[in-house]
Amino acid sequence: MNSNRIEGRVALVTGGSRGIGAAVALRLAEQGADVALTYRQNAEQARQVARKIEGMGRRALAVPADGADEEALTGAVERTVGTLGRLDVLVNNAALFPSGPLADVDTAELGRVLAVNVRAPFVLARAAAAHLPEGGRIIGIGSNIADRVPFPGLALYAMTKTAMVGLTKGLARELGPRGITVNLVHPGPTDTDANPADGPNAPAISGITALGRYADPAEIAAVVAHLAGPEAGYVTGAVIAADGGFSA
């Protein structure tokens, strides 16, 4: 019997229609949770994930929400609670991946990336905290780039993911007295449509990891699922690298 199941709990996963977010949503459903997921554009992909969750006998909810829209984000939290009855786990996964020379980053791009990668996790955590019970979980998806920047052109992305470290530690202190844990997972290179393991840069990126390969999204989801369960009840304020030894 799996002692880390989260039967009867409700999770909200941002950016849950594809990649790591979809893998997390499905894994939490496998662990027993009902799952709401947000998406920005591809409603059909989100519905496909929701149908898979329902196929496991769990309830699912797909909510459109642009990460730069504060009202939409708080609305996603409220809709999750209103439809699924509660909120126990928030997974802040949705993010933009900007890359390019510093001189090419204009004010508009800077503002949007900061809004989606930094402001949105704060806004969602603030909204979720009003509903999370004792034993609640907030789990952020960061990046190995916060620990090691191997190539030029990643300054903006690295800055935003480093901000997630401070947010995690600050929230852990603030919410700890309520029995709510807050942790951050730093994935390494992961095989998604945005960063495929057979892409042109993949050999160089894989070569930096100790394991010499990309992660499967399910491997990242397994770490998140552990943090969401009762067995990780004494883990908080932690930054956990699931990066194949990229930062070793």
Automatic annotation (TrEMBL):
Question: For this UniProt entry, which segments traverse the membrane?
Answer: none
- Which InterPro entries does the UniProt record give? KR_dom (IPR057326), NAD(P)-bd_dom_sf (IPR036291), Sc_DH/Rdtase_CS (IPR020904), SDR_fam (IPR002347)
Q: Which residues form a coiled coil?
A: none
- Is Oxidoreductase one of the keywords UniProt gives this record? yes
Please give the Gene Ontology molecular function terms for this protein: oxidoreductase activity
For the keyword Isomerase, the answer is no
What keywords are assigned to this protein? Oxidoreductase
- Quote the Gene3D superfamilies the UniProt record gives: NAD(P)-binding Rossmann-like Domain
Q: Name one Pfam family in it.
A: adh_short_C2
Residues forming the Ketoreductase domain are 9-208
The record's annotation in PANTHER family points to: OXIDOREDUCTASE, SHORT-CHAIN DEHYDROGENASE/REDUCTASE FAMILY (AFU_ORTHOLOGUE AFUA_5G02870), SHORT-CHAIN DEHYDROGENASE_REDUCTASE FAMILY PROTEIN
State the family it belongs to: Belongs to the short-chain dehydrogenases/reductases (SDR) family.
Record protein name field: 3-oxoacyl-[acyl-carrier protein] reductase
